[in-house]
């Protein structure tokens, strides 16, 4: 069974008003366990609207969305369970960094879910290690004093610290300098090798998609207009 299954999903914003607008129209998509699936498309094509269905921020108005065995159309869908299993790295790290110090920031999620003491410390150490931030060096550093690339790593460590089954990355390298971008791509490549996470990668960057993704969906005007392996989509005749 696919880890993410989307069938004929549609979404209208402001339905029944003069401003009604169809943001998604008949979208179908699957992601298998351990797969990296990319979603590509211009601004306004529906990418954010689509990924907001993956952690239950939006419920399907029409069609089917099933994520980690949870049917989002069901009124009994366990959204709490879903949010623990789906980690989202938002486009702007500022949207998910709330604590003053790096260690507290990474600990925030697992603490909220009840982890304490040594188990919590081990979890934070592990997550920081995965993103290449040395625990002893960085845990007491103020988040505001870090570079943009380091802040993105802290945000990713905070998401990983919850040990999600599915990781959604919304333009993970947007706005980074070339070196930070390379570092983050290396971290993501290693993460998929080591952890076998299912990853949804939203990206404008075809090079990044070709390097990381097994499969890619191209959205335009709320529809999937193309899908295939990056090789088949980007090959020049
Ligand atoms: P279409 O929309 O062109 O009718 P489907 O949605 O039925 O096509 O999918 C066509 C093929 O694409 C499927 O047989 C499937 O093997 C492949 N496919 C779709 N999504 C993925 C994915 N995430 N990973 C690997 N293969 C995929
Ligand atoms: P993308 O992430 O690809 O830029 P979005 O999913 O943000 O696309 O937007 C898809 C369409 O839906 C756009 O036309 C956008 O203006 C519209 N839209 C997005 N969010 C809202 C909202 N909260 N209310 C009304 N329209 C929206």
From TrEMBL:
Location within or outside the cell: Cell membrane
Superkingdom in the source lineage: Bacteria
Covered residues, full protein: 372 to 608 of 665
Stated family: Belongs to the ABC transporter superfamily.
One GO cellular component, as annotated: ATP-binding cassette (ABC) transporter complex
Main location: membrane
GO molecular function: ATP binding; ATP hydrolysis activity; ATPase-coupled transmembrane transporter activity
Ranges of residues in domain ABC transporter: 4-237
The species this protein was found in: Thermaerobacter subterraneus DSM 13965
Descriptive protein name: ABC-type cobalt transport system, ATPase component
Keywords of the record: ATP-binding, Cell membrane, Membrane, Nucleotide-binding, Translocase, Transport
């Amino acid at each position: 069974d696919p880890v993410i299954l989307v069938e004929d999903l549609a979404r209208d914003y402001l339905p029944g008003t003069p401003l009604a607008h169809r943001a998604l129209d008949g979208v179908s998509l699957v992601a298998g366990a351990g797969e990296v699936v990319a979603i590509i498309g211009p601004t306004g094509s529906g990418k954010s609207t689509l990924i907001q269905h993956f952690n239950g921020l939006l419920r399907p108005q029409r069609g089917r969305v099933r994520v980690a065995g949870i049917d989002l159309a069901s009124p009994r869908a366990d959204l709490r369970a879903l949010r623990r299993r789906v980690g989202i790295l938002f486009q702007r790290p500022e949207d998910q960094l709330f604590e003053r110090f790096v260690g507290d920031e990474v600990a925030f999620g697992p603490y909220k879910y009840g982890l304490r003491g040594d188990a919590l410390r081990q979890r934070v150490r592990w997550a920081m290690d995965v993103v290449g931030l040395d625990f002893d060096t960085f845990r007491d550093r103020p988040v505001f004093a870090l570079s943009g690339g380091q802040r993105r790593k802290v945000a990713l460590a905070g998401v990983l610290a919850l040990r999600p089954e599915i990781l959604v990355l919304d333009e993970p390298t947007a706005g980074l300098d070339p070196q930070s971008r390379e570092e983050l791509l290396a971290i993501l490549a290693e993460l998929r090798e080591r952890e076998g996470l299912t990853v949804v990668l939203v990206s404008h960057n075809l090079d990044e998609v070709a390097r990381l993704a097994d499969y890619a969906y191209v959205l335009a005007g709320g529809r999937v207009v193309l899908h295939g392996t990056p090789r088949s989509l980007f090959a020049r005749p």
